[in-house]
Specification:
This protein has 22 helices and 15 strands. By secondary structure, the protein is an alpha/beta fold. The structure holds adenosine-5'-diphosphate (ADP) and zinc ion. Residues 461, 465, 518, 533, 536, 646-647 line the site of zinc ion.
Amino acid sequence: MSEEQPKRKPGMPGPGSKEPKKGMNFYWVYALIATVLIAMLLFNSGSDGKPTDYSKFKQIADRGFIEKLQYDGVKAVIFLNDAGRDTLRQMNEIPAEGYQGFSKSSDLYFNIPPGEDFVKEINALGEAKKFRVEYLPPNEAAQSLLYWIIAIGIMIVAWVFIMRRVGGGGGPGGQIFNIGKSKAQLFEKGKGTQITFNDVAGLEGAKQEVQEIVDFLKHPKKYTELGAKIPKGALLVGPPGTGKTMLAKAVAGEAQVPFFSLSGSDFVEMFVGVGASRVRDLFRQAKEKAPAIIFIDEIDAIGRARSKSVNFGSNDERENTLNQLLTEMDGFGTNSGIIILAATNRADILDGALLRAGRFDRQIYVDMPDLNERVEIFQVHLKNVKRDDSVDVEFLAKQTPGFSGADIANICNEAALIAARKNRSTVGKEDFLDAVDRIIGGLEKKNKIITPGEKATIAYHESGHAIVSWLLEHASPLVKVTIVPRGRSLGAAWYLPEERQITTTEQIFDEMVAALGGRAAEEVAFGKISTGALSDLEKVTKQAYAMVSVYGLNKKIGNRSYYDSRGENQFTKPYSEETARVIDEEVSKIIELAYEKAKDILMKNKEKLDGLAKKLLEREVIFKDDLVEVLGERPWGERNTNPEPVV
Ligand code: ADP
Ligand code: ZN
């Protein structure tokens, strides 16, 4: 993931929530509700009729014009009878049409005069002139208004809550109107698209391929005049952190075109149809800005192969989204100047339709960097780091096999932080090595409580790994052994695995023996084994199963691979029960054989094991040179130069 574009999680108000434009939509709803309330109040007060006063009322009552009088604490309203209404209308005392209101309206009202006699007087008057007198509790009107406000308030709260849950980023309520909009981040020309190919280290092959895309965007005529169709999309395939996002940004930066960046998961929402509408919106926006690049990170979130064997139904929305994407890709002409780059770390699980000609017909592999590429990546990221002469870029690259570009960027930053914590003016080699350890193993836990007995067990365990791998021809050579607890591990033996593309049976087997060397040392030294070998056993078991059922390296099973690269058989095994039994048997055999070999080596070298464990208990960390001292030169010499820890 690139650092420049932090992703918003659904349900979390994004940085955009303070934007006035989005906020206004919401206040608009408030305003509407307030207007309705005010209107209701106005109408209600109008229904009381025309104002009059107490003495006038008495005159009207005397003439027998009143049907009913209602009063509360402050005012009384008069309902006239037909005769009264006619007469007063003729006298122009009340309007011809009468008042309109929500309830049956009264004709006149007056404020109750102060004094206690009022109630008695009107009751007497009512009796005499035969009209009803009713008392209305004063708070009734106010109460009903209060209920209204509470009810509406609850509705608003519920509404906002639902909208927040449903919508992605944006302000509260902003999603009411924006849910179907694409959430792509736009990097305009010259802003944020400043990354160029120079910032991307290594990846020569991939760069060359995307260079072509830059050329399409810059000089489309050159290609179309010859009748060539410009590709619509390219898929960047590779493990996370290898610079796919960076590469896509560099294309936009080099071609000087706007860059729409979003993640596949941004399309996915719990509402049906939202994903598809976001896709439409994204392409509409991109067409407005064409020529442009759309970058969809982690496209497998929507592009996974449409269900073949099992249909859960819940995938319908994802399929709709994918279909819409395919439609859009077919829909825009080859010359419209939009190129879609997508990244995934698993091209094999993508839907075949996506990879067809005319869609993502190019696949560009972005691999983990090799030694030389790591040197280049270090050079890029060390540009701004103040380091001293002890730092050798070649050495650092050798210490970091299997590290991605993102990991290396992280190491450079971490090393600077460590140096700053030590109040140093420059960053030294030690800081870089600490950073490497920290990134692989987690933080050192110097104050983790470990009993002396445990410490001895750990020392023997790690010494076991060290000695066994030292004495095996095909195991990777060691660089360092530590018993400093770090992260979740209590100690580690570091190897320099070869950077190789294929592995032989002997190499896998020797690695398994070395991994079991820890537990074997515990047994040889103390006669009992512990839970400390969990991760070793996990690794070994996986390797053994891979040997037998994936790589076809087992005689009994033969040249078979039950590997399912497309994930089609999630619920059924592609072999019989009988074969399953044989696989399990063979796996057990291999592992036990490896364990016996490890034990055998350690028994034959018991004094060396004791010596190394003792040294480790004293010093906590020992390096290759100390190993030579205890064990003598390694009989097979050195073939490779990259460390990897085995805990
Ligand atoms: P991806 O998209 O493949 O997961 P990114 O492109 O987001 O990886 O890379 C993350 C970070 O790692 C980048 O911002 C950059 O700092 C660093 N990085 C990765 N690969 C390279 C590279 N080849 N050269 C320089 N820096 C790199
Ligand atoms: Zn171990």
